[in-house]
Structures are given as C-alpha cells and as structure tokens.
Write a structure and sequence with these properties.
Blueprint: H1 2-16, H2 78-81, H3 109-123, H4 126-139, H5 146-159, H6 163-176, H7 183-196, H8 200-213, H9 220-233, H10 237-250, H11 257-270, H12 274-288, H13 294-307, H14 311-324, H15 331-344, H16 348-361, H17 366-381, H18 385-398, H19 405-418, H20 422-434, H21 442-455, H22 459-472, H23 479-491
C-alpha cells in the first residue's frame, strides 16, 4: 500500500521538483521503468566528513596548593571588629592547654575560643580546631568572631579531606558574612572546591567575584587566573582570553603571569587563531627561558606552526623537544605531529616510513593508530582512493581494537564508494552501524547506504535506509534530496 501511494504521489512530486540538478547527466533525464540510468550523485566523490582528532595540549602542570591566609600575613583586625584589651603576660592563660603568641593577653569568652581554635588549626590539630570553633559558634551565636570561626572551620575540614563539609562552611560565610575579613578567602575557597570537582561553571563564578569585590585583594591575581582556567575548560575561549588579559594588564608582575600567557595561547589555539598563539608562545620562550612550562610551550608552538602550514618550522620545533627533553611523555603525539608535517609537505613516503618506525620502536599507542589513519586520509583527500582503501584495510588488520574503528570503516566505505565498488562500500558502512556508535556517523552512513543500494539497483534496501534516515533524523539538511531519490527508487 505504501509503495502504491509513493508511486501515485511521486508523479506529482517529480513534476513539482526542478530537474536542473547538477547531479543528473543530461542524456539520462528521461527515465525508463525497464532500464536504470547511470547517475552521478553530486558530491559523492568526496566525503563531507573528515575526522580531526583534537590536538592534545597540556594545560597546567598541576593545580598546586590551595591558597589560604598565611599565619604571617593575618591581621586580627581588633580595631574594626571590636575593642579588645591587650595584655602583656606571655604565660599560659588559666584553663587553656596551649601557649603561643596568639594567647599573649588576657583573652576571655568568644575571643579566647577563637584564638584557641586558630592555635590548634596552625598546629595541624584540625579535629581539635573544629571542636573549639563549633563551641564558639554554638555558645556565642551573636559573636563578632562567628563568621571568622565558620571560615576556619571550613579550612580545618578541608585539610581533613571533608570537602563537601568544608564547602558548606565557606558558602555560609559568602552568603551570611559579606563584611567578614575572610569573605574573599571564602569565595576563593568555594571556587577551589568546585575546581577540584571539575564544576568549572561554578568555580568560575566564585573566582571572578573575588576580583569584582576587591581588585586590590591579595587573592585577586590568583582568582583571575583560575577563573580563566575554568573558562578554558568550559570551552568559552574568548571569555577566558578576556579574563587572562585583565590579569596580565592590571597585574604585570603577577606571579602567575607566565602561566596566564601560556593559557591565553592555548585559548587562541582552540579558537584557531594560530598566528596569535604562535606569537604568544614565541614571546614566552624568549622572556621566560627555562620555565617549568618550557616543554609544554614548545609543544604548543609546534602544533600552532603545523596548523599554520609552516611544516618545516613545526617539524624542527618537534625535533628540538625530543632532543632537549629525551624522556618526554609527549613523544608519541610528537611523532604524530612530525608525521603530519611530512603529509603537509606531500612527503607521504617519509610519513609511511615514520609510522613503520613507530610500530617497531614504541609500545602500542593511540598516536601510532592516528598516524596510519592520517595517511589514509591523505590519500583520500588526494583522491587516490585505491591507496586510501588499502591503507584503511591495513589499519583494520593492525589495530582491530582501535577506538578509531568506526571512522576507519566509514572512510573505507567512502573510498570504495568513490571507486564505484558499491557492494564493498555497503559492507564497510554496515560495519559502522555495528560498532558502538560513539562518533555519531549514523546520518552519513544511512544516506550512503541508500545511495549505494540505489546504484546496485537494490531499490527496496535503498528505500528502507532512506526511510530510516528520515525517521531518525527528520531535520536532516539533505532531506529534500533524499525525498527526491526515495521517490525515484519507489518508481523504478
């Protein structure tokens, strides 16, 4: 019934649709029900999809230590919090099992508990510190020291590894004690906890508020850096550049300046602004010399040069990294980068030789797989489909468990399709549908399966594939073309 309806309405569709497609050969525009014309489909000799694995770029060596108020820089702020009579005796106070410069004075009540809690905290007795601070909070709910005690309770919990508990205390200071001397530190600590959880959106908001609240605060520089870092991981590269630029312009002597410049370069790289990235990385190497980030900067510079098509300079930079850092953990992707420079210079034989060396000298590596895949892609882009198909088949033989399986089967199908080996192409495309489907190639595969089936005059299968395509992807950009050829298949 469906076939009859398609045939009936197909006649009207054929009349309404213009036949001036460039995909049709002029002499075959009049169709016969007994003979299938030879049709060349527009764009089917080249794939619209190409796989580009994201270039791996080390971002920061490590998160380092969370900053907190240091003992030597803290000011109790007696004048602003309230009048406290300071005493001179340095002996232990009655009822207190501690002695330190914190207790030099006649301390009573909530202030006594606050100093005692801080003493335990800086001594590393975090459980005792939490107990004392909690006593202050419970027994003196209106204390002027309450906000500070909540903050230090959070710090003690953080050091105990009780991250969520620590966050709740920091958040309480942020929400309820905006005038606290530790407000900025609480914001920063909230951001840090979110950063550890890879909750970059929340982390960015907390860090940025430190700068908005007080641009002159000691934590502002670090907060701007981590705000930019969070934005980078959110993929909001333009905003990250703006944040890092603020840091570098307003605080040219910032201790995190080199790291900020490197991170800014990575953001430019992700935006494909390779000229800006290259300039930043080169400037970094000139000004900061033997910085701990030198290897990473050279690596990012090499990829920027390759992305600009400066293959010789990029290859030289990669090779210099291997010489300067012989034990580098980046050796595998560096070899991949060198191979890409050979392909960029059309020296495919050198690329093949490098891949063979890769196989013989290194352990199994995803970058060796990527190297062979790129060689196949090179042949495909040069329209050397026979060599491309042979390379992709070689890949499947060498790397049967590779994560690139779906892509390789697809590209093998594309290569065979362009050689007009439609049956072989169908087998390859079907393999894509049998895989885990992590790459999201179903749309392209179903479309190709329909066309390939059409070419070998298996019209029922062509119709089935195209109907499945339009059902699963109703907003397919080539919907009108698919409907046209689906109708053609139903009429043949």
């Amino acid at each position: 019934m469906l076939r009859r309806l398609i045939k009936i309405f197909g006649l009207f569709l054929l009349i309404s649709i213009t036949l001036s497609f460039t995909i049709l050969q002029g002499e075959n525009q009049h169709r016969s029900p007994t003979r299938t014309p030879e049709i060349t489909f527009f764009g089917k000799e080249e794939t619209k999809w190409t796989e580009k694995r994201e270039v791996p770029l080390p971002v920061i060596i490590g998160l380092g230590m969370k900053e907190e108020p240091q003992l030597s820089s803290l000011d109790l702020g007696e004048e602003t919090i309230g009048p406290v009579k300071k005493m001179t005796p340095s002996t232990p106070q009655p009822g207190c099992a501690y002695s330190s410069r914190f207790t030099r004075g006649m301390l009573v009540g909530d202030k006594d508990l606050y100093e005692k809690g801080r003493y335990f905290y800086f001594k590393g007795d975090y459980e005792d510190a939490i107990e004392v601070f909690q006593k202050l909070i419970e027994e003196y709910p209106g204390s002027l020291w309450k906000g500070s005690a909540i903050y230090w309770t959070g710090e003690a919990a953080f050091h105990e590894g009780k991250i969520e508990e620590a966050f709740s205390h920091f958040q309480k200071v942020v929400d309820e004690y905006p005038e606290s001397e530790f407000y900025a530190y609480a914001l920063y600590s909230c951001g840090w906890v979110q950063l550890r959880k890879e909750a970059y959106e929340e982390g960015h908001r907390f860090f940025h508020r430190v700068y908005e609240r007080n641009p002159l605060h000691p934590l502002t520089q670090s907060s701007l850096f981590w705000s930019g870092y969070s934005l980078y991981y959110l993929g909001r590269y333009e905003e990250a550049i703006k944040e890092l630029d603020t840091l570098l312009r307003r605080y040219p002597e910032a201790s995190s300046g080199p790291e900020a410049e490197y991170l800014m370069g990575l953001n430019f790289f992700r935006l494909h602004q390779f000229d800006e990235a290259t300039d930043l990385f080169k400037s970094f190497l000139k000004r900061f010399g033997k910085h701990p980030l030198e290897e990473s900067v050279r690596y990012a510079l090499a990829w920027s040069l390759v992305s600009l098509g400066h293959y010789t300079e990029g290859r030289k930079t990669f090779e210099e990294i291997l010489l300067a850092f012989p034990g580098t953990k980046l050796s595998d992707p560096i070899f991949w980068g060198i191979l890409k420079t050979y392909l960029g210079d059309n020296e495919v034989e050198k690329a093949i030789h490098l891949h063979q060396r890769f196989l013989s000298h290194f352990l199994s590596s995803p970058w060796a797989e990527q190297c062979l895949f790129d060689i196949g892609q090179y042949y495909f882009e040069k329209k050397e489909y026979t060599n491309a198909a042979a390379t992709f088949r070689q890949f499947l033989g060498i790397y049967p468990e590779s994560d690139l399986q779906e892509r390789v089967h697809f590209m093998l199908g594309e290569s065979l399709f362009n050689q007009k080996d439609y049956s072989g192409a169908i087998d390859a495309y079907r393999k894509v549908l049998e895989e885990k489907r992590k790459v999201g190639l179903e749309k392209q595969v179903l479309s190709r399966l329909g066309y390939a089936s059409f070419y070998i005059k298996n019209y029922d299968e062509a119709i089935a594939y195209w109907e499945r395509l339009l059902t699963d992807f109703p907003d397919h950009p080539e919907k009108n073309d698919i409907l046209y050829w689906l109708t053609e298949a139903a009429l043949l």
